[in-house]
Write a structure and sequence with these properties.
Blueprint: H1 2-5, H2 16-31, H3 35-40, E1 42-49, E2 55-57, H4 58-66, E3 71-84, E4 89-101, E5 106-120, E6 123-131
Length: about 140
């Protein structure tokens, strides 16, 4: 219990760095509209819950990644905390920073998130994600 609370990986070799590397790869794939790599790093039954409460399926998320009317210039996580539950499940909390443009607007936001990662076939894959409402900009 103490090791999970401290984010210490189980002894079989899973590390915080492995999970965060998978997270960084997924973030970069989304930034680059790379649906193949994105698909490799999310499970077949992947779901994403947005701050609005809307639920996105794997298919809807991949369609969003492919959508060239949304261009990201920044998509990275920070302040991550990784907790392991057994050898094949990790929960990552942190803040994702996103900036970019739609066809009509520029945007910038920082979104607190909770992601569930599972080890499948030797690769960490995101099974579920949840993004909270964006943080308010400091005044």
């Amino acid at each position: 219990m103490i090791s999970a609370a401290l984010g210490i990986a189980p002894s079989i070799g899973a590390t915080r760095e492995d999970v965060l590397a998978a997270d960084a790869t997924l973030n970069h794939a989304v930034l680059m509209h790379d649906t193949r790599t994105t698909g490799d790093y999310i499970t077949d039954d992947y779901t994403l819950t947005l701050g609005s409460g809307k639920l996105m399926t794997r298919a809807a998320f991949l369609a969003l990644v492919a959508d060239r009317s949304v261009t990201l210039t920044v998509n990275h996580s920070h302040d991550e905390r990784v907790r392991f539950y057994g050898a094949s499940t990790a929960i990552v909390t942190g803040v994702v920073e996103e900036a970019g443009r739609t066809d009509t607007n520029a945007f910038y936001m920082q979104v607190p998130f909770t992601d569930t990662w599972v080890l499948q076939g030797g690769r960490w894959r995101q099974a579920a994600g949840h993004g909270s409402a964006p943080l308010k900009k400091p005044s």
